[in-house]
Amino acid sequence: MRLSRYFLPVLKETPSEAQIVSHRYMLRAGMIKQQSAGIYSWLPLGFKVLRKIENIVHEEQMRAGHIPMQMPTIQSADLWRESNRYDGYGEEMLRMQDRHGRDMLFSPTAEEMVTDIFRAHVNSYKDLPLTLYQIQWKFRDEIRPRFGVMRGREFYMKDGYNFDLTKEDALHAYNRHLVSYLRTYERMGLQAIPMRADSGPIGGDYTHEFLVLAETGESEVFYDSEVTDLTFGDRDIDYDNVAQCQGVMDEFTARYARTDETHDAEAFDEVPEDRRRIARGIEVGQIFYFGTTYSDKLGATVVDKDQKQVSVHMGSHGIGVSRLLGAIIEASHDDKGIIWPEGVTPFHCGIVNLKQGDEEADAACEALYDQLTNAGLEPLYDDRNERAGGKFATMDLIGLPWRITVGPRGLKNGVVELTCRRTGENEELTPEAAVAKVVEIFKPHHVRGL
Ligand code: ATP
Ligand code: MG
Question: Which ligand 1 atom lies nearest to the CA of residue 319?
């Protein structure tokens, strides 16, 4: 993409309504525009990152054997009356009527609808296990939408639902989700810690929230500092292997890590004092096993081996896809702007032309642009007729992890400059070597772009 032809409405002033850094930078970098409280347009740069995150979530869900689908955002109230959640859901549910006076709502989640699909089409234990998921817009009429996309009213969420014959099978699905979530967040450059949480209105005995540590997080968290040493890395996981998934689950949840809702002061005291941490965190996902609550109410049964009708065991699993943009920025920025992790960056590499209009510099930039593009990467070439200082400030603000700077002086010596956004380190390289290095860096991070 050439910046002169892109739509990047960068703001010079810091918007006064933004209280936290991710919100400020998302507005300043021209990623989002608020349209009403908690409702945003996703401008091209923000939309690009949203799609990158969404694609990682899809890849990791499908790797775990989960099946993508899409359900409507507008649902009939009748289904929610069947599960007894229509009245109980309260003011967070956006309710409306169609022209025939039928009660409708904008889906805040989809346990009812997916169970309705299941009961219509699945009759036998032979069709289990089954996990369906979608990535779809949700609406919750939050009392205090704030912090930009972190607590919106309209937000983008991955919601998945497992259907299993037995509790053991459903707990394997639970563990499988935990493993796939750890892997998902790590690919986004995030450390998200699974913490034992409160199951709230969904009910059930098993639930973990995934929290990214950040001072601006809304949840208070208590943990053993050893949990932050754990990483998923590039281990090979067979998602059908029950013992292996259970092993990862045990390893990651053996140490004390809880949100304030389930915090147990006595148990926390058993953690060695120098490892006890109290901090704040951003909830970026949650997994639940809730047994047969919905299948009993909505009649989601299958026949088992003995031809007996049994309710299926279910769980639901959410990832806050749009919230993740905020969480990533909270975890990765400096005073100049965003620093995107390689896995989610909107463009892989910036190209800054220090002297637009200089024949040699222009030609060198065009050549770099073509070489990076031909290697399957997306460069952002700042080809505007602007001063170098302004170009650097824009690149730093929008946070591309790598930048190649091209100027007549360097070209005389046959070199360009490759700069790492995170460390600020510069390296003088031939243009070919700069391209080769950037291509190498992104090899493990290949995610479909848009
Ligand atoms: P919270 O406690 O933050 O209100 P929740 O527990 O009600 O969230 P879930 O039903 O678990 O949310 O939804 C799954 C994920 O969707 C959450 O982990 C979070 O990342 C994201 N999410 C929930 N509410 C919002 C919101 N208002 N804006 C943006 N993301 C949200
Ligand atoms: Mg939650």
Answer: 15
pLDDT at res. 16: 86
Burial class (CB in 10 A: 0-12, 13-18, 19+), 117: middle
Q: Please identify which residue in the block is written with the tokens 């959410």.
A: 318
Q: Note if the pTM is more than 0.85.
A: yes
The helix/strand count (H/E) of the chain reads as 13, 23
Assign domain 349-448 to its CATH architecture: 3-Layer(aba) Sandwich (3.40)
Using CA atoms, how far apart are residues 433 and 211, in angstroms rounded to an integer?
39
Which numbered ligand comes closest to the C-alpha of 108?
A: 1
pLDDT in tens, 391-414: 999 999 999 999 999 999 999 999
Alpha carbon of 116 to ligand 2 centroid (Å):
23
Q: DSSP of 303-356, one letter per residue? A: E-TTS-EEEPEEEEEEEEHHHHHHHHHHHSEETTEE---TTT-SSSEEEEETTT
Ligand 1: nearest atom to the Cα of 285 = 18
Q: Which of 304, 256, 330, 348 is nearest to 23 (CA)?
A: 330
CB of 155 within 6 A of ligand 1: the answer is yes
Tell whether the model's pLDDT for residue 448 goes beyond 80: no
CA of 320 to the centre of ligand 1 (A): 6
Tell me the per-residue pLDDT of 256-311, one tens digit each, with 9 for 90 and over. 999 999 999 999 999 999 999 999 999 999 999 999 999 999 999 999 999 999 99
pLDDT at residue 446, rounded to an integer: 72
Q: What is the pLDDT averaged over residues 128-135?
A: 98
Q: How far is the CA of 286 from the centre of ligand 2 (A)?
A: 5
Q: Residue 282: nearest ligand to its CA?
A: 1
Tell me if domain 20-338 and domain 349-448 are identical in fold.
no
Q: What is the number of other CB atoms lying within 10 angstroms of the CB of residue 32?
A: 23
CB atoms closer than 10 angstroms to residue 412: 9
What residues does the ion ligand 2 have nearby, CB within 5 Å?
286
Could you read off the pLDDT of 372-393 as tens digits, one per residue?
A: 999 999 999 999 999 999 999 9
Average pLDDT over residues 192-197: 93
The residues spanned by each domain of the chain are: 20-338, 349-448
Instruction: Average the pLDDT over 149-162 and give the result.
Output: 98
Residue 393 vs residues 11, 338, 368: alpha-carbon distances, Å: 12, 11, 21
Query: Among residues 366, 361, 413, 415, which one has the least CA distance to residue 388?
Result: 361
Calculate how far, in angstroms, residue 89's C-alpha sits from the geometric centre of ligand 2. 15
Q: Is 323 in the pocket of ligand 1 (CB under 6 A)?
A: yes
Model confidence band, residue 203 (pLDDT cutoffs 50, 70, 90) = low
User: Domain 20-338 - what CATH class?
Assistant: alpha beta
